[in-house]
Every structure is written in C-alpha cells, then in structure tokens.
C-alpha cells in the first residue's frame, strides 16, 4: 500500500447509500480507479466488500459518534477481523475505552486471536501516536485530528500532526512490524479534499493517503458545489 491511495467508503445512518451492496459497488469503483486499499465501516459492509475486492481492507465499526466510537472494544476488533479484513482500525487515542481495557491490552487481545491482522491506530494528536506506538500498533493514522477536542479542526488535513507523526514514526526505536526495517507507516486521513492535498501528504512522508468524503460521499460533494454556485 506504500505510496498509494486508500479510499474510505462509508455511508451514515439515514443516508440513501447506507446499504452493503451499494458500498461494495463504490469500493469496486474505487479499486477500478486505482485505490490500493479500501476502508469500510460496519460488519455487513465489510463482508460485502470482501466478496468483491481483493485489495487490503481496513475495517472498523462505529459505535455512536462521540467519545471513543471507532471500533471501541476488543470484542468489536475481533468482530471486524472475523470479516476478513487485513487491517483493523480502532480508536488510538489515550481516552478510556468503554470495555475498560487499555489500548495495549486491546492490541494484544486481537493479536492473540488474529496474529496476522494489522492494527491501525486512529489518533487525534502526536501524543496519541506516541502512546499508540508504545501499545504496539502497526500503523498510525491521523484520522481523529480535529475530532477529539485536543486539536483545532483544520480546513483540510492537520499538517502539524502529519509532520509530527511522520517524524515520530521515523525516529530511532520506532520500527514497523516485527522483522521489518521500515519506519511505522503513517496513513494520512481526514479532510483530504483535493488531489493537491493528497500529493502533499505523500511528499511529507505519508505511507498512504486515505480519502473518504471527497470521493465517496456525494451529498457532501454536492453541497460544496451547490454552495459555490449559490455564492457566485
Ligand atoms: C472522524 C471520523 O469519524 N472519521 C471516519 C473514520 O473512519 C470517517 O467518517 C471519515 O470519512 C474517514 O476518516 C475519511 O476522512 P474524510 O471523509 O475526511 O476524507
């Protein structure tokens, strides 16, 4: 997945595209356009995607939409891994988790059941990323920068967090999965809305760039255009 684009295909409660078949088709369309990986949410969507795409899938579940809601418990992680994802994305912040386990215990518990599945920590800051590395995660994501209260929500990616995480991942002692000599991969995710931003993320050292809304959320994209037209 190095140097490649991952496309996040997610629809939200109440939306017309919230349907596993639809999301699987969107994932297929993204792969046809060059996505080297897919990120998906919800067990039914993940199972449907697994049937039609062979690129790596980053799977997650969302439980609510505040606090720790991205694959919050060990049981959620196991359920996501059971769908056949190569990577499980989970909340990688330092906040208390609803099942009372630490991030390290969650990672260890998942590894015990699924030794080959990689763990992507969705972090909100460089401080989160440091703690996530210590907890043994395989991949750092900037996913939650601007969503945890620790950082301002920037227009576009939070470049300060991107740079900080890339530096952290490349620092001495921070090494990738067992036996690998690569720095820990940093996936830049969150408000990457333009091709220029995606390219900039790679220039700044991102291993991969994850784009969701700007590719797979027609309601948001339509709103951007509608507002521009209305303001003209
Ligand atoms: C904060 C949060 O819950 N992020 C979620 C994580 O899976 C998704 O809602 C985002 O769409 C995804 O991260 C991709 O980001 P963007 O849609 O901005 O390209």
TrEMBL record:
Keyword annotations from UniProtKB, A to Z: Carbohydrate metabolism, Isomerase
Any one GO molecular function term: N-acylglucosamine-6-phosphate 2-epimerase activity
UniProt keyword Transcription present: no
CC annotations in GO: cytosol
Pathway: Amino-sugar metabolism; N-acetylneuraminate degradation; D-fructose 6-phosphate from N-acetylneuraminate: step 3/5
GO biological process terms on file: carbohydrate metabolic process; N-acetylmannosamine catabolic process; N-acetylneuraminate catabolic process
HAMAP family from the UniProt entry: ManNAc6P_epimer
Family as reported in the entry's similarity comment: Belongs to the NanE family.
Biological function: Converts N-acetylmannosamine-6-phosphate (ManNAc-6-P) to N-acetylglucosamine-6-phosphate (GlcNAc-6-P).
Protein name in UniProt: Putative N-acetylmannosamine-6-phosphate 2-epimerase
Gene: nanE
């Amino acid at each position: 997945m190095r140097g490649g684009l991952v496309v996040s295909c997610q629809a939200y409660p109440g939306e017309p595209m919230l349907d596993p078949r639809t999301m699987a088709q969107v994932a297929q369309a993204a792969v046809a356009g060059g996505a080297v990986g897919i990120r998906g949410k919800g067990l039914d969507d993940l199972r449907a995607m697994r049937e039609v795409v062979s690129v790596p899938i980053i799977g997650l579940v969302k439980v609510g939409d505040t606090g720790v809601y991205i694959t919050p418990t060990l049981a959620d992680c196991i359920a996501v891994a059971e769908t056949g994802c190569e990577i499980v994305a989970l909340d990688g912040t330092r906040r208390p988790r609803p099942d009372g386990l630490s991030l390290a215990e969650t990672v260890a518990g998942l590894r015990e059941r699924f030794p080959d599945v990689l763990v992507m920590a969705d972090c909100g800051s460089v401080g989160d990323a440091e703690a996530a590395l210590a907890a043994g995660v395989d991949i750092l994501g900037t996913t939650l920068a601007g969503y945890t209260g620790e950082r301002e929500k920037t227009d576009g990616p939070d470049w300060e967090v991107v740079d900080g995480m890339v530096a952290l991942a490349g620092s001495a002692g921070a090494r990738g999965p067992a036996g690998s000599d690569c720095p820990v991969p940093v996936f830049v995710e969150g408000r990457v809305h333009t091709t220029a931003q995606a390219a900039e993320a790679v220039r700044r050292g991102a291993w991969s760039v994850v784009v969701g809304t700007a590719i797979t959320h027609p309601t948001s994209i339509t709103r951007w255009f509608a507002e521009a037209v209305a303001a003209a």
